[in-house]
Amino acid sequence: MSASSPSTAAENRAESPTRQLAEFVSGLRFDALPAEVVEKAKTCVLDSIGCCLFGSTLSWTRMVAEMVLEQGGQPQAHILGTTHRTSTTQAALVNGTAGHAFELDDAHTRASMHVGSVTVPVALALSEWMSSLSGREFITALVAGYEAGLRIGIAADGHIFKRGFHPAAVCGAFASAATASRALGLNADQTQNAFGVAGSQASGLMAAQEGAMVKRLHTGRAAQSGLYSALLARRGFTGIRDVLEAPFGGFYNAVSEKWTRAYVTAELGRTWEILAVGFKPYATAGACHASLAALDEIMLEGDLKAGDIAAINVQCTTYCHQHVAWPYLPRGVAAAQLNLFFGLAAMATDRAVLIAQFTEARLGDPQLLAFMSRIRIEADPALDALGHPNRYAMHMTVRATDGRTFQRESRDRPGSPERPLSRLQLVDKFRLLAAPVLPAALIERIIATVSELDRLESAGALPGLLVPKIDQEKKN
């Protein structure tokens, strides 16, 4: 077989989405980012840090941190919410786990992804290790990770989930690799190799949704794997060059029933997917959010209490039904957070679905379990016909004990760009999540620092603020 001619090789390279994405990541410059993209990136940073800080207090994150500290590592970056430092890759593992530890991290509907948990911990670790990384470079690296990871998720159009993989985990490895590659200043060839290495490490099984701590680890491993990939590529380590599109054993061939090649690079550098990222007001799977908001609104409208509700009927998409409408059993916090029966029972009883609703004592609460018998959830083919971008579409009917009937329908979840949270709501969420770890004055300082992130000479000043309360008290 004769070798390809130079012109043929160039054509093949131009058609490769893996290569095009690598060239975009390596060539991205801060000056090319629209002002709204920069502001959105800063909001993503603040929200992700809040999730990481709260997540650091939870037992499953502490187990990962304890394992890392037992293993040891060069003191390059902080384990957030603690005074401990370890290697950048180990910090990414723990902090990425913390970011997804309580189902509050950001989400993109079309990509079915949480990107903050796999990119922000990587950017923070590298900025602490590399004092030369400016705030502008931090943001640029972060946007590169969001754009790469989200587009890889979008191209699968929901089929990664349908095959049983967790998109935040398998696509997250590429998002992390992109952020790390850009922060490290890798060229297009090195970035392409980083993608090629990350693809072989992309994993995460969706069965974890029914009650396993390992779902939290998915984003930690993705963050670590992407960082490993970039650090290896910087040394000349090679990966699968056409990792996304390879016809046998490539990423999409392995983890998705089908994919749309053009979606990976469509309008790349002109349409910014980070702008379509939303933020969570409830500590549950995003597939629960539209229904939770609908019940909250109905109860407010009808001045209803839990005892006033005779029945709740929800029609949702097959995606949501499969994801969150399985029969609830108290198998741990993750099971409750990814179950719509539990979420609706908590909303009806507490009028809140955030932190207090997911303590161990509430998971098997007889009052919540009894209320679930009033809930019926069905998949509606008419909602499926709206397509994957509308997979959160739902219709709810609530029948009150006095005979009144209330209805709500929605195609979007609260917190999405279509139904956004206000700046005040997002800042209040950060304050709530950071409060168990940091003093109030330091929380306000972090909010101010993130708002000025693009003006920092060294982004390493930011992780330096994420020091726990006990250490601050020692300094005072």
Give a verbal description of the structure:
The protein is globular. The chain starts with 5 loop residues before the first helix and ends with a helix. Helices cover 52% and strands 7% of the residues. The protein has helices spanning 6-15, 17-27, 35-55, 59-71, 88-99, 116-129, 135-156, 159-162, 167-170, 172-184, 188-201, 214-234, 251-255, 286-302, 318-324, 333-337, 340-350, 360-363, 366-371, 381-384, 423-434, 440-451, 469-475, and strands spanning 77-78, 85-86, 107-108, 277-278, 309-316, 375-379, 394-400, 405-410. The protein contains 23 helices and 8 strands. The strands form 3 sheets. It has a 4-stranded mixed sheet with strand order 6-5-7-8.
